Amino acid sequence: xxxxxxxxxxxQDGSYLAELLLEKGYMVHGxxxxxxxxxxxxxxxIYQDQHQAHVNFTLHYGDLTDSTNIIRIIQEVQxxxxxxxxAMSHVKVSxxxxxxxxxVDGIGTLRIxxxxxxxxxxxxxRIYQAxxxxxxxxxxxxxxxxxxxxxxxxxxxxxxxxxAKIYGxxxxxxxxxxxxxxxxxxILFNHESPRRGETFVTRKITMATAAIALGEQDxxxxxxxxAQRDWGHAKDYVEAMWRILQQEVPEDYIIAMGETTYxxxxxxxxxxxxxxxxxxxxxxxxxxxxxxxxxxxxxxxELGKQIIAVDPQYFRPTEVDLxxxxxxxxxxxxxxxxxxxxxxxxxxxxxxxxxxxxxEKMLKEVRSSINY
Length: 372
Ligand code: NAP
Ligand code: F7E
Hints:
By secondary structure, the protein is α/β, with parallel strands linked by helices. The chain is built from ten helices and 15 strands.
């Protein structure tokens, strides 16, 4: 039985990857941080009661800033594969805590690689590093002749997050070349799901769409509506991570859908799932979205009501304007075929958030009806 260790197991990708590896018959170990409140919601369905826990699933307390516990966990687990997904992954927040991000996302990667080397596991343990399209920085002149970023495009990170991840990228490549380690970077473009953190733009939009449609919120405030992203589904992307570590030769791969969409259009797609058409008027910080029509009897809003506005507090000091990745290498070499397209992703996120908001609404009503 293969043994995998996942850092960042409590995150979006960690939870999907854990499910995938368990399905494939792996023994899965995960690193979770100690927190003052529960942080295991995304994996609770796997790990419900530690006394009746999934027999092939174990969690260890740990933190990527602490090399002593990284070494101890890797020594105990003796993994065949390590997926280093742990990170402070929010680009905007990285401007507020740049040193912490460098420590976790940059040096944290080194701690994993060095632990494997110190323990003499270079030949046994394969390492996947969660690299990112943020390395490209969205500079138009760095795209290839087909208009995509590919594995040869130059990097130009535009945030402390991107700068920390670029160290993680190069140190992974360096350990591969210097010590013959099977260490690979997956350069993943944005991937989303119903489990996406609530402060990333797609989930913020689908949650707010559901809340507005159900009368629980008045207006959705967003930042840069002009940003364009290449969005895929996290379930498809964790499959690619696994495939990267099953190859004969360790290499780096871009994982992307090869299509890009404006944030504004993602808003329109989300609202259209509940039968609401939005018309955008105005420009820059004055741009606003209004209800143009409502075709679903369950979700009726006043026509002409303003429900979207721009709030500059969500702008970033430096923005990545446009990302679009070329998945040719991953499709041909890894045989990776995504099952979801953007429409399918939005549909799934909206269905999940409608249920979520309905449940919250019901709980609120129950609580307010109880006379304490
Ligand atoms: P996520 O939902 O934010 O999850 C991040 C995980 O890292 C969480 O489990 C978090 O733990 C953990 N973590 C944070 N700080 C840590 C620390 N100091 N020590 C150990 N663990 C720590 O991110 P995701 O979307 O699943 O992304 C997974 C990885 O892929 C990240 O490295 C991210 O940077 C990278 N990536 C993501 C995308 C994307 O579009 N999703 C694209 C490219 C690359 P808590 O639950 O306790 O916070
Ligand atoms: O922003 C714009 C924002 O925070 C997407 C991480 O997983 O993917 C993610 O990073 C775009 C940006 O993701 C709001 O300015 C507009 O242009 O969802 P996001 P991100 O920054 O692309 C990469 C690949 C990673 O590696 C990261 O870990 O949307 N935007 N209005 C907004 N963004 C947010 N968060 N909130 C807004 O209100």
